[in-house]
Amino acid sequence: MTDRLYYRDSFLYDFDAEVREVSETPRPAIILDRTAFYPTSGGQVSDAGSITVGSDQFNVTEVADTEDGRVVHYLEAPLKDLQPGTRVRGQIDATRRRDHMQQHSGQHVLSSAFVRLFGMATVSFHMADDYCSIDLDTPTLKKEQIEAAERLANEIILENRPVEVRFVTREEAGTLGLRKPPATDRDELRIIDIRDVDISACGGTHVNQTGQIGCILLRKFEKVRQGWRVEFVAGQRAVATARRDFTTLTESAALFSAHIYDVPQQARKSLDEIRSLRKQSEQSQEELAAAQAAALLAETAEQNGRKLIVRTFADRDLNAIKLLAQKLTRLSSNTVALIATTSPQPALVFAQSAGRPFDMGLLMKDTMAKLGGRGGGSKDMAQGGVSNADNINALLAQIADELRSNS
Ligand SMILES: [Zn+2]
């Protein structure tokens, strides 16, 4: 078993050790007689840092537990001819370790706050790179409860209570009133005791005083299968997160030329305006299409008992030409309309007044086959889209000629 130096001192960032095992496959790894590196476990991710052998320094990329209690350090580069028995020096990335201590100790304090206030037990803890979360065993969780737990957790931090580590037998642990049953079946348990606040069996790295956690900021909370998940950040992470939130909010406020606290109100106002403008625009388009249809019908003479209207626009979308085709064929009982647009996206609409003899769906399918596009529709109304507008006009003229001769 590897002697775990972090069990007794979480603030030990440098240590000497002796190489026990070296392995190069599947990736370079080293096992030492003792280590201050924390391996990924119990929801906490591993330490980073380096191991120095003579004048060579190797970055530690990952640290893991073996089943029989050894700690494996995975290294970035091959170890050459390193032999067991060699003396090495380990250096822990102190910034990362301090961050992990703040998050993990913060979790103990927060979990105990939820128990004390609402009897909600923490069933799991997860530490990601930029936030942490706990899952609470509760059917409901309200915003007021989140705020109350956050307040109590920060009060406990401010009280700067001692955080003590000690080792006890399983039997002794049974008398201490642990917040939750130990996750291990070992005979000796490592106890983290936040004075008069929380006692837990835990192998993680923790601060010495709650004041070192700095602060706790609760963020998102959401329903998950086994209860409610609460996201939080502690210490420097909380400050970095609040800084990012403030920057985002400040940028948003600048867009509205408003104070940051007025952003929701301004955003709501803008959305209302957009909705109202969209409605107005739809109404204007309807009116425009109706007026244009009336004018086109007035200037088009009947041939063989029907009006054939052929038009290509350069600046309308599919919806606009569809609307025009609808108006043309509804305002008149004997009209066939072949309408196209070339921009922004080339498209065609074929329509006829109800009861006319042609099949617009079939005609559109044939046309699309010739233009290399996709489309179709019903007997009276069909639409299609093409990627290239080049041949649209020539083809529309040809279809019009065919329809005229086909009476
Ligand atoms: Zn812990």
Describe this structure in words.
Helix content is 35%, strand content 30%. It is of the alpha+beta class. A six-stranded antiparallel β-barrel has the order 2-3-7-6-5-8. It has a five-stranded mixed sheet with strand order 16-17-18-20-19, with helices on both faces. Strands 9-10-15-14 form a four-stranded antiparallel sheet. Residues 104, 108, 192, 202, 204, 206 line the site of zinc ion. The site of zinc ion has 6 residues, from helix 1.
The largest pleated sheet is described as: 6 strands, antiparallel, barrel
Q: Considering DSSP H and I runs of 4 or more, what fraction of the residues is helical? A: 25-40%
Distance between the termini: 96 Å
SSE series: EEEEEEEEHEEHEHEEEEHHEHEEHEEH
Number of helices: 8
User: What is the rounded Rg?
Assistant: 36 Å
Residue runs with pLDDT of under 50 for 5 or more positions: none
Strand order of the largest sheet: 2-3-7-6-5-8
Q: Main attributes?
A:
single chain; 407 residues; alpha+beta; 8 helices; elongated
Brief synopsis:
This protein is an alpha+beta fold and 407 residues long. It has helices spanning 94-118, 143-158, 170-173, 236-256, 263-299, 318-331, 360-371, 392-405; strands at 3-4, 14-23, 29-32, 34-35, 49-53, 56-65, 71-75, 87-92, 121-127, 132-137, 163-169, 188-194, 198-201, 216-224, 227-234, 307-313, 335-341, 347-352, 374-377, 381-385.
